[in-house]
## 1
Amino acid sequence: MHRVTVDNLPAWLNIPQLLGPGAWELTTRDGWVRAEAELPRPQAADLGARLRNLGIGGRKLRVACIPKLPRGAVRAARTQDARRRRQTSVGFSRSGVRLDEQGRFSLTPEQLALALGKRANGVHVVDAGCGAGGNSIGFARAGCRVTAIEADPKRAADARHNTRCYDVDQAVEVLTGEVEALLPTISTDPQRDILFVDPPWGRGYNRERVALTDFPLLATCLAARHQFAEIWAKLPPSTDVHACEAAVEAVFGHAPGDARRVKFLLLTFHA
Ligand SMILES: C[S@@+](CC[C@H](N)C(=O)[O-])C[C@H]1O[C@@H](n2cnc3c(N)ncnc32)[C@H](O)[C@@H]1O
């Protein structure tokens, strides 16, 4: 058995889901949690591999193991972790969809997009920077009317095409252009409507810590608060949210390969 300590877990996180089975003892200080448990070697090695070089909510996770894990166990766990990453939540499941490289990389997995859609409860949603349409389709499938904005004309065309693959093209209007220019022209109900933004994270984004100021598209959206009841932002798990007025939630994957991984943070800003 190994005594495993995980430090720098934000108190708002579903810690049992992230860490998995174990008699975890939790100590909270200033909104950050330390978790400690005795774990069998394979489970300790798995946790070390899964949480390696990751931060959640703005601080890098620290994992310590006593006695130290042998190199062979660490290597085997990392290989297994890499294999498991291939069984993560599916992006689009329907055939015939179109995605360029950025569209594919930034696509919200279908089931997670649908779950967000259900939460929106049928209101009008503006999707600011819709990419290939992953979230717009999720909102529309759940019964929302969607106005989607995308600056890249090719990706906007892909989003239109993909809404047809999912039979929701009647519910989604895709506008090609910059959010900054188009948002003020969209008619909204400030008592009900939601502005959703999934700004570009960049392929090499920092998985230990990123700042809210790293997402200029978010700032643009927050400036349009008066037009909406809520603004929902999908941001990297490593986003530093500690000085932020939004409600924060960590959204996990649902497939076996990512059910214990935080896929993104969902920040809800109220008007
Ligand atoms: C992370 S992707 C969105 C992915 C999408 N949520 C999905 O699941 O398919 C962000 C998109 O925002 C677009 N974008 C970035 N800045 C923009 C702006 N100022 N105006 C309009 N679109 C923008 C990018 O071209 C990119 O396609």
## 2
Amino acid sequence: MEEFLYEKEDRLIRCGDLRLNLAVLGATGSVGSAVMNVARAFPEHLKIVALVGGRSAEPMGRLIEEFSPARVGMYYEDSAKKIEEAFGIKVYSGEEALIDIWRSYDDIDALVVCVPGLFAFKPVYEGLRSGKKVFFASKEALVVGGEFIMKEVKLKGQLVPLDSEHWSIFSFISEGQRLRRIFLTASGGSLRDLSHQSRKDASVSEVLRHPIWKMGKKITVDSATLMNKGFEVIEAYYLFGLPLDDIKVLVHREAWVHGMVEFADGSIKALLFYPDMRLVVQEALLGSSSFENPFIPRLDLRGRFSLTFEEPDMEEYPCLNYAYYAARMGGNIPVILNAADEVAVSLFLSGKLKFGDIPKLIRKVLFHFPMERLSSPEDIYFWDREARSFAGEALEG
Ligand SMILES: NC(=O)c1ccc[n+]([C@@H]2O[C@H](COP(=O)([O-])OP(=O)(O)OC[C@H]3O[C@@H](n4cnc5c(N)ncnc54)[C@H](OP(=O)(O)O)[C@@H]3O)[C@@H](O)[C@H]2O)c1
């Protein structure tokens, strides 16, 4: 990439000739907002061609006014209709919003996938198959269909993680060094300072009050159970191809260190930055850490500070163990884990399940099914339905 220097706000910024035309799936969410923020800051490099959301018509309306995308999608039909009426444009809905909105168009170079849950699998998988570059925050895509996705990556795909831990590790690997072990750091979630009993009875509002990150509800609950970290272990397992025993989780309350790798000689490299998804998104999309963005806070290294790391308590956080188990088993088991977690978290958020019962419901569903191989991506949807239906029965039981 040819590079040049230019003046902006009295600072010299190193800048490339990069131009990416993007379809952003999940544009109105927490990561989606970070993506739109970066696109706003670097319009000369990032062009928004398609925007997709789920339900929230108003924030999508604001993005349409600001970015004038060529195409818009809303997964849920009533929301798509609202946007159609307000803007007099065609709005894709259902599967069309996740796939057709970009697949048959070559004005899109890359997809940015930040929709939660099982919905993420198809756009990531199909995006790679059609030769688009895929940036993804949605770890669930790899949890449910890691083997299918990584097969496409080996064939021709370009897949770039947007999870801060995986992005950090990814940036070390591009230097071409061999890894011995990797460490995924976890802040410990919203309930990290509570006793066992108070944690079990925690209310929805307590669980959603994350001490560091402002994220969507699903991932915030998953952070409190450490299921999010478990999903990240599975994501790392597929992305980096290390044995599961060499993928370690460390609780790191400060959330300054996002990923660490240990090399063959015992040296460890860590990437530190202020916990802000805009930094990850910016570096990943622009492919460089040379761009300044005055809106992203910097770490304050003045005075005394300390960085702490500790091993997670696996008894207190059984969901992390379930994820290691699912990754070890492979086949349909990670699909079942994901479905059981989606059901349990949604029941908790609607007040129908106690926080302490989330791992119990997941365990019941997870260990009910024997391992079966997945022969095609369609099997993912079969096992997802089976697990959801059994979760309903288990709950009634
Ligand atoms: N938040 C973070 O800091 C973070 C960090 C790393 C990874 N991740 C991962 O990124 C993903 C998104 O997390 P988030 O925190 O950004 O979630 P979020 O705030 O809940 O946002 C989800 C986005 O996806 C849209 N959406 C939901 N269902 C959809 C569907 N069926 N089709 C199309 N769009 C749909 C939502 O639209 P509406 O709001 O209109 O429904 C919203 O724009 C998750 O997989 C999460 O694990 C998040």
